[in-house]
Amino acid sequence: MELKSLPEHELARLREKAKEIVGNQEDYGEVYSGLLTRRLNHEPLQYIEEYIPFYSIQINVDSRALIPRPETEYLVELIKERSSNPQKIIDVGTGSGCIALMLKKLFPDAAVDAIDISDEALSLANENSLVNNLEINLYQSDLLENVTSTDFDVIVANLPYIPTSTLSSLDKEVIEFEPLLALDGGTDGMLYINKLITQIEDKNFENTTLFLEVDESHAHHIVSRLSTWSEVKLVKDLVERDRYIIAKK
User: Fold this and answer.
1) Tens-place pLDDT, residues 17-65
2) Residue 3 CB neighbours (<10 A)
3) Which of 59, 96, 125, 219 could form a cystine bridge with 242, CB 3.0-4.6 A?
4) Which element (helix H / strand E) includes 89?
5) DSSP character for 22?
């Protein structure tokens, strides 16, 4: 990456981060130079800044988990709009904890569980729980494998959905810095989504609503996979892509 390719707003944010680190408005040149080098080496700006706003909370971010995307903020908005006073919520594949923590803020009386296969991701989610003073239950599980309760009102999942063969085509700042475990969806990109749906069915979850964020190329296949559920809706994102599935069981 060349310096001229960086937009001015990124340079301004790097300068502000350098000033924050040194603690004053003047002697930040050396620190700024170091941050700029990291960005020119394709490190995501969000990792350099170390935190991002998500909906109405602050989320610390680093290479332990994916950087939350705007599409996921809209997923939270859908849950807010389409859930009536949920008492038990589970976020499957919580990563940084952004979804679980924001749902706890929106539904403070709900018990919110957040699970991930990655202990590193869970440690970051725990830090974010403390930063935001929001109490959620964090534990390690391969999807629902270690989950014994089946009485969740809401199940939410933003799982890896990129086919393994296409990972190499992702931008350098994604493929070289963000965790591949959180991106690789198996041969067809459907491995974990299919597995989650099967687990929900095998464990006999009832009276629950599943909220999924998916890739538009998989959306109709997943809707077909859920054909035996009582109600299934496909919702577009803000740029009219088939991005979210809401299914009741």
Assistant:
1) 999 998 888 888 899 999 999 999 999 999 999 999 999 999 999 999 9
2) 9
3) 219
4) strand 88-92
5) H
Supply the CATH classification number for the domain 62-248: 3.40.50.150
> Chain centroid to CA 87: how far?
22
Take residue 166 and report the two structure tokens written for it.
């296409």
Q: Where are the domains of the chain?
A: 3-41, 62-248
Question: What is the spatial distance between Cα 70 and Cα 125, in angstroms, rounded to a whole number?
Answer: 18
DSSP state string for 110-126: SEEEEEES-HHHHHHHH
Strand extents, DSSP E, the chain: 51-54, 57-60, 88-92, 111-116, 137-140, 154-157, 209-213, 231-236, 242-248
How many Å apart are CA 225 and CA 132, to the nearest integer? 37
* pLDDT tens figures, 69-95: 999 999 999 999 999 899 999 999 999
What six digits make up the tokens of 51? Answer: 């935190």
Separation of alpha carbons 149 and 164, rounded Å:
32
pLDDT value at residue 24: 83
For the record, the structure tokens of 107 come out as 């539904």
Considering the entire predicted model, what is its pTM?
Answer: 0.92
